[in-house]
Amino acid sequence: MAGPDPDLDVVHGTLDAQWGTDGALTPLHGERDCNYRLDSPAGSLLLLKVHNPADTDEILDLQQSALRHLRTAAPDLPVPDIVPTRDGRPWVEISGRDGRVSLAWLSTWLPGRHPEPDELQAVHLREWGRTSARLGRGLRGFAHPAATHPLTWDLKLLPRLRGWLPAVAADRRAAIEVVLDRFDERVAPVLPRLRAQVVHNDLALTNVLVDDDLALTGITDFGDLTHTALVCDLAVAAADVLSGRADGLDLAGEMIAGYHSVTPLEPEERGLVADLMAARYAATVLITAWRTREQGWAPEIDDDAYAQLEAMLSAGLDTLADRFEAPKPPVGRATAALTKARVGSFGAQELVYDEPLHLVRGSGVMLEAADGRRFLDAYNNVPVLGHSHPAVVEAVGAQLATLNTNSRYLQDAPVELAERLLATFPERFDRVLFVSSGSEANDLAWRIARHATGATGGIATEWAYHGVTEATYAFSPESWRGAPAPPHMRVVPPPPASPEAVAEAVRSLSAAGHGVAAMLVDGVFTSDGVHGPAHAWTRAAAAAVHEAGGLYVADEVQAGHGRTGSHLWSFVAGDVPADLVTVGKPMGNGYPVAAVVGPAALVDPFVNSTDYFSTFGGSTAACVAALAVLRTIEDERLVDRAAVVGAQLLDALRTVAEDAAALAAARGWGLALAVDVVDPATGRSDAERAGRIVEGLRDQGVLIGRTGRDRATLKVRPPLVFADTHVDQLATALAATSLAIG
User: Fold this and answer.
1) What is the span of the domain harbouring residue 696?
2) What is the DSSP letter of 479?
3) Cβ distance 225 to 66 under 8 Å?
4) Which residues of 708-738 are buried (b: 16+ CB within 10 A; e: fewer)?
5) Could you tell me if 457 and 633 are in contact, meaning their C-beta atoms sit under 8 angstroms apart?
6) Selection from 271, 287, 261 nearest residue 157 by Cα
7) Mean pLDDT of all residues belonging to the chain
8) Which of 580, 614, 613, 633 is nearest to 466 (CA)?
9) Lowest mean pLDDT among 23-37, 316-330, 459-473, 510-524
């Protein structure tokens, strides 16, 4: 049906009567609807959409419902909001000059402009692919009856357009027939078994807004929403954005790679992208030709589409199918060959699993292996925001492309990071020293403690881990493998044992002439088997150390950055009078950065007497990574999320343990959790069984670890973006694995 023919006098009257506003109307692009920018006298901007008379209430409700869904499910995507009429209606009727009635509605105005095709470079096209995938994810849970109505532009319905071939110019029919025949033979049989959902189906240049830097500012026109195979959405976006570009086929892989980085494509989906792009071009030629013949007019969009289709056929769709497969990282060697090479160069350094897990990609809480299998990561605490978080990727990438040098030059990032860190600590802390790892941070804290106290003795819990340097190795009984403690060290049982052992360790060190320089404590007692919170224990330990003139070092490398779900730092949650604090691991979400935080009274004399400096500590890129982490934790309220999801996960683990004879106590603090594994027959710790459970969970697609003195405790410490669905997945896999192992 021909588009609407609104009477602008009627439109102005309707705006005033129904919405209480009016102003200048500027026509905008629209294929079958009329769109206008409304400039109100007050200076505000709105978008008026007058629909094709063929569009029913149900069609408008589909589009508006999708917008409402996206604003809730994907608030980071810039889509318009609906402006209701004075009496709360979402749309009104407007009569056209030809007597036909159209539905019309107002929405908020999105800033930006439509990009020109040739200004989109590879990096922009990759981001366009990511946007397409993010939009698909946002619509994943959306359903509406009108979305299942047949839509001419739905690629899965291409065979229905074969009857329109006579309308196509004779010299173009052969190419269209090739696509139709391949579709019938190669695509149609596969589509029904692929992932399907409601998709935007039209992420073309004219439906996306960008700023002057080509960053996304708006997504518009939801008129082609339909329920179809998910991969069709990618194919449509790629075909439309690259139409008319001589380098289009060379750049298609960038869009596909961007999409794949957010929503990994399944093998069958990958294999159909080329055919589906060709289908989009064929559909464009068929629909344009038919409308021109039947209605006397159609948008001139078929010439570029046909030229691109000819280029695809010339290159060969099978060849392009191979080329368009989502690019895999440069793995270089197959898993077996890489394993052999690793042994040859790494020697006896062990891997996590008996069967090597060859990882190639990570996103959020998911990891992907070289064989395409995906794994829920409930083990790695370094990517606190999830793997490949865009805030960190973008911050580090931009900084590395600008400047990356040491902190002895005056720069914003190190100073801002220090200020932001100190703002999260008690007022007594006013100095920050940057290093590159948690081991370095603990080593440096030990040096400061020895400098301040003149003593040489140290205290750690009996199975702690605090680092790999010579000094921190002495504080890491987990690494001693049963060897006796160094002469200057004493170890104490972790909670729930009595803290009186700390006082005894103090007396022993004093009697041996070492005195007490420092005690290092991981507030979650991760390597000891995860025993936090233990506020009374840690306060008592600090008091005993202070009485002997030593320093209490809160090692927040594993417990910090919100993992406990109560405050950003575990020692703050327990009101522990720590003297120095070390942070690392998740500080840069994978970029190496760490720090020692303390009072000037301890830090300044040490720096003045040692001229302390770290070449890579506080580098510009490291600092922007850490800043991105702190901002994201705050913006996404990840500390609160750790508390809520952690409680849900603990309940789920306890429920599973109740029905599994081999699983004993489940405990946790936020998203640091543990489950003890025992021999059902004796009730004793069972390290061998714990190992089999970890391996079995890997086979179920879930990654966790082991901890504790006898390594018979399952360790769960996922990224803080863990969600309800991940809790269910982990609990289900643990229940199945425990049942299978017995």
Assistant:
1) 335-385+637-742
2) G
3) yes
4) bbbbbbbbbbbbbbbeeebbebbbebbbebb
5) no
6) 287
7) 93
8) 580
9) 316-330
Considering the entire predicted model, what is its pTM?
0.62
φ and ψ at residue 185, rounded to 5 degrees: -85, -40
Q: Are residues 484 and 622 in the same domain?
A: yes
Instruction: DSSP letter for 485, please.
Output: P
First to last CA, the chain: 67
CATH number where 204 lies: 3.90.1200.10
Looking at the structure, do residues 261 and 161 belong to the same domain, yes or no? yes
**Of 635, 659, 675, which residue constitutes the final position of a domain?**
635
Q: Is 3 a domain residue?
A: no
Most confident range (mean pLDDT) of 303-307, 427-431, 737-741 is 427-431
Say yes or no to pLDDT of 386 above 90: yes
Q: Domain containing 70 — which CATH number?
A: 3.30.200.20
Tokens of 238: 């790629």
Residue at 192 is within a domain: yes
Angstrom distance (rounded) from CA 654 to CA 187: 47
- So what's the pLDDT on residue 204? 94
Structural domain includes residue 296: yes
DSSP assignments along 351-401, one per residue: PSSSS---EEEEEBTEEEETTS-EEEE-S--S-TT-BT-HHHHHHHHHHHT
**pLDDT number for residue 297:** 65
- In-domain check, residue 1: no
User: Ramachandran region of residue 688, left (φ > 0), alpha (ψ -120 to 50) or beta?
Assistant: alpha
Bridge-based pairing of strands 705-707 and 208-210 is unpaired
Closest to 566 measured CA to CA, from 523, 627, 628? 523
331 pLDDT above the threshold of 50: no
- With the CA atoms of 732, 738, 740 and 741 taken in that order, what torsion angle do they form, in degrees rounded to the nearest 10? 160
Q: Same domain for 302 and 429?
A: no
| Alpha carbon distances (Å) from 266 to 193, 194, 272, 374, 491 | 11, 9, 10, 11, 51
Distance (Å, rounded) from C-alpha 302 to C-alpha 490? 79
Q: Identify the DSSP state of 472.
A: H
Band of residue 140 on the pLDDT scale cut at 50, 70, 90: very high
| Domain count within the chain | 4
- From 635, 659, 689, the end of a domain falls on 635
Tokens of 316: 């060969």
Scored b (16 or more CB within 10 A) or e, 183-206 reads: beeebeeebeebeebbbbbbbbbe
CATH code, domain carrying 652: 3.90.1150.10
Tens digit of each residue's pLDDT (9 = 90 or more) over 85-112: 999 999 999 998 988 999 999 999 999 9
